[in-house]
User: Fold these one by one.
Assistant:
Number 1:
Amino acid sequence: MKKTIHVVGAVIRNHEGEILCALRSPSMSMPNLWEFPGGKMEEGESPEQSLVREIQEELGCTIEVQDLIEDIHHDYPFAVVHLLTYRARLLSGTPTAKEHARIDWVPADQLLSLEWAPADIPTIRALI
């Protein structure tokens, strides 16, 4: 049986309504695909706590987690990814790519022009 990896992702909008998208670096699994910033949940954390910690680590920002957008199970060759995506609001800090190749603010209607990690596609569909 495949391992299940529990991950969380944040849909963060700026004042223009653009959404923060992160490009996976060449050294990451699934390199050069776009994703919503976030990461793996740790033992004993709620999804919301996980997301706050991951965004702090990955982007150097503090967020407030809002409502759940999607609850996705995606079967990759290496594992099943259980992804929870949430709307989130930037409270402080300017997002900086610490682990990703780059981050960009993208208008919602242009999200599908990027090459996304498959597990993120249902969230994009929910947003547009």
Number 2:
Amino acid sequence: MLLVAFHVYGVEDADFDGVDDAIDKCPNTPFSDLADAYGCTTSSLYTPTSYDIIMGLNLSSMNANTLENTKTSNATLQADIYHGNFSAQFLTSYFKSQDSTYSDSGWNDSQINLFYLFKPTTEFMFQAGVGVIAPTYSTGYSNEAADYLASLSLQYSLDKNIHLFGGYSYTMVNDNDVGNLLNYQNTNAFYAGIRYIGSKNKSISASYTNSQSIYSGVKPIETLSVGVMLPLDSHWFLLGDYRYGISDSASDHEAALRVGYTF
């Protein structure tokens, strides 16, 4: 016991890395780091956390809630948290539709999503997600309910610049039917595309999307889209999208511009 006490109290280790200060070549090692015999970090248990917030404006020739062919604008807000392979996302938007005979505005449904990223190889990665769609959109029939979704997205790198991507999602729609006016259904959606990443992480992508409508009897919504991502500096970035509808159930033209900040 005396020997143990002498050993414990006879060592000075200011950064608690298990190495005596007299031979510690890397003082002030973080408590979350594993150190070698000289007190220098060999690996860290610390996982960084980052955040971003993205705001934007979406212009469409169709109201996605009512399928009315009216000019519609959506002010969008997205917030993300990243911690290691985990991430969480919040999405919401406020719409306004108007033409000579029709006017409507309000909140669209909001989403909360959780994701986990898998990287089996350096070329291939996939991300699994689950989410809740909160009924912040009002149909006027008091039939709204929370919906649930599951998703899987994939990416394969052909080289450092060219990436193939795709994904699938399934949404369980729980809103109550309203007589013969509104009849809902669970939906499937998938997309596939290609992305080119240039210098300073600037990128351009092209993709195809096929998504079932939440309303039964409506043809799947098919679109072709082009997107760009432009970093402005280490924090600010711009996102731009254009979608062309190739089915009668899709908006003929849709464009979005968003600005984001990461910290």
